[in-house]
Amino acid sequence: MDFNRRRKSVPTAMELLRRHGGRLTEADVTGLSAQRIADAARAAGVKIPGGDETRTMVRAELRKLAGLPPQPGDNAPAEFVPARATATAVPTTALTAAHLDSLLALGLPVVLVPTRTAA
After folding, report:
1. Rounded mean pLDDT for each run of 10 residues along the chain, 119 residues in total
2. Is 110 in contact with 103 (CB distance < 8 Å)?
3. What DSSP character marks residue 99?
4. Predicted TM-score of the model (pTM)
5. Could you count the other beta carbons within 10 Å of the beta carbon of residue 22?
6. Hey, what's the torsion of the CAs at 70, 74, 75, 81, to 10 degrees?
7. Sign of CA dihedral 50, 51, 56, 61
8. Helix (H, G, I), strand (E, B), or coil: what is residue 70?
9. How far apart are CA 23 and CA 99, in angstroms?
10. Distance CA 22, CA 36 (A)
11. DSSP readout, 16-47?
12. Angle, vertex CA 7, rays to CA 61 and CA 39, nearest 5
């Protein structure tokens, strides 16, 4: 279940950052409604986050991407490590044209690393 939350949070956060022109304040992140997060998820081509935990991960990821400090209310699970602003890992199996467009729109370097799948 955590895997699906993480898989949704990265592209959704990237889409939200793109929509804000790469510039966000803490007030922007805190003020995000469930509807705006759902709209961004749809645009990014991922399933809409259906719970508070996933929306919390989206906000935590968005803070990282925007270079904002983490907030105590993020409550991200210990194993969830949000991506840095200059490097975002997205499994290629989940990478779609919408994800790539969102990445490229940010003007950040994109590196695709092929890996072997477990047999």
Report:
1. 80 91 89 94 91 90 87 57 46 59 67 63
2. yes
3. H
4. 0.62
5. 15
6. -60
7. negative
8. coil
9. 19
10. 16
11. HHHHTTT---HHHHHT--HHHHHHHHHHHTSP
12. 70
